[in-house]
Design a protein that fits this description.
- GO terms for molecular function: DNA binding; DNA polymerase processivity factor activity.
- InterPro entries: Pr_cel_nuc_antig, Pr_cel_nuc_antig_C, Pr_cel_nuc_antig_N.
- Keywords: DNA replication, DNA-binding, Nucleus.
- The structure is a single chain.
- The protein contains five helices and 18 strands.
- It is α+β, with helices and mostly antiparallel strands and about 280 residues long.
- The strands form three sheets. It has a nine-stranded antiparallel sheet with strand order 6-2-3-4-18-17-16-10-14. A five-stranded antiparallel sheet has the order 5-1-7-8-9, with helices on one face. A four-stranded antiparallel sheet has the order 13-12-11-15.
- The chain starts with a helix and ends in a 7-residue tail after the last strand.
Length: about 280
Amino acid sequence: MQLPSKRSHCEVLFINMFEAVLTEGKTFKHIIEAIKDLVGDCNLDCSEEEISIQSMDSAHVSLVAVRLGSEAFSTYRCDRPNSLGISTSNMDKILKMLGDKDSITFKAEDDKPDILTMLFESENDHGAIADFDLKLMDIERDQLGIPDTPYKCTIQMPSSEFQRIARDLQVLGDTCTISCGKEGVRFSVSGAIGNGNILIRANTAEKDEESVVINMNEPVELNFALRYLNFFTKATKLSNTVVISMSPDVPIVVEYPIQDYGHTKFYLAPKIEED
């Protein structure tokens, strides 16, 4: 009798594992591209409901929060909650080899605790399948409770427009004043070479993603570092719209919805002007 081999076979059946197939692999590629300049190392937190990332930048000025619900994946299995420590720059290097129409299969097993396997598969019948093993790291958890703040002003606008504003105004100065009032939302910069103001008014377009929707309970005016706002706009590929939420004396939230199953959110503390 070959009892050892039989026991070995049973053990394999009960190995805890994480496996998820993301048909639109480019979504995850764009997430890593969007956060890698802010977050060097972070945990991919996997649970039965979702994959999430929550991490502060090295200066502890901004916070990144990513969520992909299990419904985003064509196949999703997570036997137990697990945190996979990754280097975003190393992950980005691997994802550069992903085709725009490739799917990604993620696999992590308890018997290989230091490895995250990723399979890239083309949708073509004769497409290649590439597999990569990313070495994982033990990253100290820095999970922060994000309060459910009722914001005084919320702006939904085309993400490409917000990207253009942040890029253009950075030429003039380092600090952007965002003020939400009756006339609309004003982005202002004052610098050594001059001043600039861009006013965005609420409007309705044929396509929802091209509309500007402003909900304001009271006027809000805050100052933010343009350098960080430009970092956030690297998530433009993830969504046609961006949602900006503000309240006095609390961090701004810049959210890029990912269809109806996830988001990438950036939190940034306002700058305090000294007298």
